[in-house]
Specification:
Chain lengths: 284, 284
């Protein structure tokens, strides 16, 4: 099978590595707008060739669109248009975006909608670009299929097989459920890390040695603040309503803590901490 | 040398392991109020004997007080009283607490103040109790000496040697500087993790499967929310003013983010994220 990958960054690049090495892909065709990324991807060996988008569509069996979510909506539509224009009825396009409502809405009425499978492999690191790609990134993680009933069963089956090669657990849900859930377990974590980094970096202006004291706890809490703006600006705006809702709950919890600490309310603080400790049962 | 350790939890227990195994301590005497912890500490081999506090003071050369900060203030004073009563001029007591202002203030006028060295080894995990103790916990981390000019140079030298055996980097600062810095690089991280856990656990009441989607990013941001109330209630109340100040800055940053997202202000969000990204230079 020939796999076309649009965007050879952390996700696209890591998929390229494992799909090739595990035998699912005979050939990987890459599409990469950024010349530096394109030459790095070739050097690292993420793709056999870098080609223009149209050529990639025409020569690939599956096209994986793995670019920031704003651009992805546009490119998935272009790919579907090309399927229609060339009567390529057996080709499949997938996206790997972190928000699902807009991309599934924008494609809903496309005559080739059935050839599109909307997925979100829940894996990653705080780094990006072809140099962030790595083998085994997806092993054991969850992959969400959003609105999978809108895809042709045959196309869906092929993409399920592909993610099976990547050792991912498939989960099926609606695009809107996906966007609510990821706001809670992914998007808010990024916002809280960004805010934490900003808070401490502000203080560092006066206190040069503040980071001498940073321990493992701080590093793990602030790690996601290294994540790229290119990826996160579109996620936060596309999932605006859900993200704002979670942020409001979160700010309320901070205010509850603030009140209890301000009033030296030891029982109140203890209650909040012990409630929070229930996360132990869930996260190892 | 005989080392007495009051509180054989994560910090006290881990010190016991490495001080014994690296030859600094010939004998470890433990003081442990909790019977379950006492028997576990003996079984694990953290201490050679569990003895009452007075016996521990009388038989030890160095007494390490490693209990939650509220109790530690009281015990350090008791130890100094006993030094005075028994004219034990060569013995040393240290604490390992996460807040320093109250403990240094409470001991300031004690006639044996010079025999007290106030330290904060900046190491730990989110777990507690004797079963959380581990070898090599302190290697390469910073150890803060607070108001070290209030200790006798000879006592200070011995404790510096002790932390050198634990492979820690010594940092010297005032108790008040310490409490400001730790509010920024440790205490706030815990509060943000607690609040994040509470936010998501609240949502879980309606959405049972929300944690199926939790990825590595979420786990690392929420990890500190497993930390114990026994340890954190006294830290947050003793360091109240600094913690509230940092929380206010943090809540402001969250509000800035909220505003930018609510207004679809892509440039604003990008600016905040790129500012936060500067943390890359500092935290690897």
């Amino acid at each position: 099978m020939t796999i076309g990958i649009v965007g050879l960054g952390l996700i696209g690049g890591s998929m390229a590595i494992d799909l090739k090495r595990r035998g699912f892909a005979e050939q990987i065709l890459g599409v990469e707008a950024e010349p530096l990324h394109a030459s790095a991807a070739l050097k690292i060996g993420l793709a056999d060739e870098i080609v223009p988008l149209e050529e990639c569509i025409d020569r690939s069996d599956i096209i994986v669109v793995s670019v920031p979510v704003g651009t992805a909506v546009r490119i998935v539509c272009q790919v579907l248009d090309r399927f229609q224009a060339t009567e390529a009825k057996d080709k499949i396009v997938i996206d790997t975006c972190s928000t699902k409502e807009q991309i599934t809405q924008s494609t809903f009425y496309h005559p080739c909608r059935q050839q599109f499978v909307s997925t979100h492999p829940m894996a990653g690191t705080e780094y990006s670009g072809p140099w962030a790609a790595m083998p085994n990134l997806f092993d054991g993680r969850a992959c969400i299929f959003a609105n999978s009933e809108e895809s042709a069963p045959k196309a869906l089956k092929i993409i399920e097989d592909m993610y099976d090669v990547l050792n991912m657990r498939p989960l099926f849900m609606s695009a809107s459920q996906h966007d609510v859930h990821t706001a809670y377990v992914s998007h808010i974590s990024h916002v809280t890390s960004f805010a934490l980094a900003l808070t401490v970096l502000d203080k560092e202006k006066d206190e040069k040695h503040i980071f001498d004291l940073a321990s493992g706890g701080f590093s793990s809490t602030v790690r996601l603040a290294k994540s790229s703006a290119d990826m996160w600006v579109p996620i936060l705006t596309q999932n605006r309503d859900n993200v704002l809702h979670v942020m409001d709950t979160y700010i309320e919890k901070m205010q509850e803590f603030r009140r209890a600490i301000a009033e030296f309310d030891e029982e109140g603080i203890r209650g909040l901490i012990e409630d929070a400790n229930r996360i132990k049962k869930i996260i190892r």
